[in-house]
Amino acid sequence: MKSSSKKINDGVYWVGVLDWDIRDYHGYKLDGTTYNCYLVFGKDKVALIDNSYPGTFPSLWGKIVDAFEKEGRDLKIDVVIQNHIEIDHSGTLPQIIKKFPELELYCSAQAVNGLKNYFPNLENFTFNIVKTGDTLDLGGKNFTFISAPMLHWPDSMFSLLHENGILFSNDAFGQHLCLSERFSDETSQDLLIRHAKKFYANLVTPSSSMVINKLKELVSTGLVNDVKIIAPSHGQIWRDPSLIINAYSDWASGVCKDKVTFIYDTMHHSTQKMVNAMIEGVLSEDVEVKSYFLHEDERSAAVTDVLDSKAVCIGSPTMMNNPYPSLGDLIYYFNCLSFSKTGKTKKAVVFGSKGWGGGANKKLSADLKEAGFEIFEEYDTLNIPSDEILNECFEIGKKLGQTIKSE
């Protein structure tokens, strides 16, 4: 298959794969993604950084061939740098090794068993294990490796190419986004940050403390001064690293807006009426609101707004003494993401309609506390909310808005 590589810097080419069709991955919805991988041409050796999803080899190979032709070099990959073992980054590794059986493979110690597990034919393969501070010289192209465990898997690492000032960061700083443009400054910054925030919220939030520590490490060692470009394994390549580094610093530190995210489901529209009344109360305090109806909206979009909200309002009817089932999926996800690990505790209002004895509020409050939220208020009503009840919902929203503005 013929395909075209993209030169991103002197001797460095993007040879990744565009996946226009994928709609569900990593547990959330997306509008396509890219499997970014890169060729670096040194005087003595050529390195491939990461590779792509199983089944995508023809597109990847076409770009590799194209890059070698553009450089006027004989087709030979000497080194593979495997920054992360997950299958969307390593899925074509066996085909690369089959074509170049003498290549050297560099990865973290934690990556070795994972790669052998994915690809049993690598059981007797020789791995070059690297850690922070280790280096590799391709001949005028020098890498320093940086361990980055839990950003976002235990085996993850970064590779810094000094001469070009490129940090190959794998999943960190990425976005699940598929565009014809390759660089961050070639598209809408609002769109890009929104997708980067969704990526962070759904994948990186549990590792927020490690994000902070890694950013501090890059500063204290002076390595950050060498970074002119950040080339992640998904989405756009950042030609202004400060944009995404500052965003990561804010998200990891729990920096939030005066903002409330509503997430709810409803059976016969009673809880929905309470949502609308509560939203009006929050808006009366000039506080930003985002609202997600779980009957139609999906949780990965909702948690993207939870990330920089000071409070969430969770609405659910009671169903057989329990919350509506869609809320259970959300709460499990909250537990996975551990928003409290950003160092800031978010407030939560729990509310809804019940048919007789209730029970949803008690269960949701307990689960939200376990997930690290502070319960600001619980409120429920019997069947259809009256005007008086809706006025009380308005006041709850207003009080919540006043509270988060005062923080």
From TrEMBL:
Segments forming a coiled coil: none
Top class in the EC scheme: oxidoreductase
SUPFAM superfamilies: Flavoproteins, Metallo-hydrolase/oxidoreductase
Secretion signal span: none
InterPro entries listed in its UniProt record: Flavodoxin/NO_synth, Flavoprotein-like_sf, Metallo-B-lactamas, ODP_dom, RibonucZ/Hydroxyglut_hydro, Rubredoxin-O_OxRdtase
Keywords: Oxidoreductase
Stretches assigned to the Flavodoxin-like domain: 260-401
Molecular function via GO: electron transfer activity; FMN binding; metal ion binding; oxidoreductase activity
EC number: 1.-.-.-
UniProt keyword Zinc present: no
Domain of life (superkingdom): Archaea
One Pfam family it belongs to: Flavodoxin_1
PANTHER family in UniProt: ANAEROBIC NITRIC OXIDE REDUCTASE FLAVORUBREDOXIN (PTHR43717:SF1)
Record-given protein name: Nitric oxide reductase
